[in-house]
Amino acid sequence: MDEFENRPLLIYDGECEFCVKWAHKFKVMAGKYITFIPLQNLPVNYEYATRAACLKSVQYIDIDNRISKGAEAVFQLFHTAKKGSFLLTCYRRIPIFRFLTEYVYSLVARNRHLFS
Questions:
Q1: SS3 of residue 68 by DSSP
Q2: Considering the entire predicted model, what is its pTM?
């Protein structure tokens, strides 16, 4: 993580207009807390997230190199930015909330190019 300013890292698909738009919005909200980087700018030998995983869903890597993906990654982002920590708490403690948010995330992720 040293090359990314020792902050949590959010990796998104920089070739997807939908992803770029939301990454920009999230960066405005949380940019001082999190480093945002398009998948396409990662070093080739980056060991924490594969290209395939990053194309499937957003990846959040905390400063201890723990990886969250999908809805959990978004809730981690809000928690780190101090803008809705209750969402991460709900995600972790309420199974139906976790299931529903991951389901909605996967629907959007699979159809993200339609939203661009």
A1: strand
A2: 0.88
